[in-house]
Amino acid sequence: MQFDSESTPGFAIGRIAYLMRIRMEAVLKQAEWPFTPDEPQTLITLADMCEPLSMNDLASRMVRTPTTVKRQLDRLVDHKFIKRSVSPKNVRILMVGLTSRGEKKLRTVLPLLDELRKSALQGITKTQVAEIQKVLQKMQSNLANHALKDHALKD
């Protein structure tokens, strides 16, 4: 069987994700960040929304399982970067929001992550970045649709 991993987008995406994670770990360590590269994504997602989110909504936006997000949230709560509260609309729903301490820590690490992003995109035009983003969003949508169909088949 012939297979060319060099021309397969999935392999390229995997390699890029791995290299980004390694660089993020180094940048975050330099900033004395006490977590893995996954936690900034959690804080950034909450900051982007400008309001608390339910844990399930947060997991969905981050394309993670609720269990994975819960573990991240536990660490962030322990460091007082986020807080949990009961939804005013439904007491069974737990909401998650940034604390002022979390916002402050995020503000210190965002410029470092932005430099990493700029380094990764060096030599790539804004038009190319927009096209890459469009392709990646389409791939994510395609895969999410398949995941939903696969999940429905299990039920």
Automatic annotation (TrEMBL):
Classification via PANTHER family: TRANSCRIPTIONAL REGULATOR SLYA, TRANSCRIPTIONAL REGULATOR, MARR FAMILY
Lineage start: Bacteria, Pseudomonadati, Planctomycetota, Planctomycetia, Planctomycetales
Superkingdom of the organism of origin: Bacteria
Source organism per UniProt: Crateriforma conspicua
This protein's UniProt keywords: DNA-binding, Transcription, Transcription regulation
GO MF, one annotated term: DNA binding
Pfam families reported in the protein's UniProt record: MarR
Protein's recorded name: Transcriptional regulator SlyA
GO biological process, one term: response to stress
UniProt cross-references to SMART domains, sorted A to Z: HTH_MARR
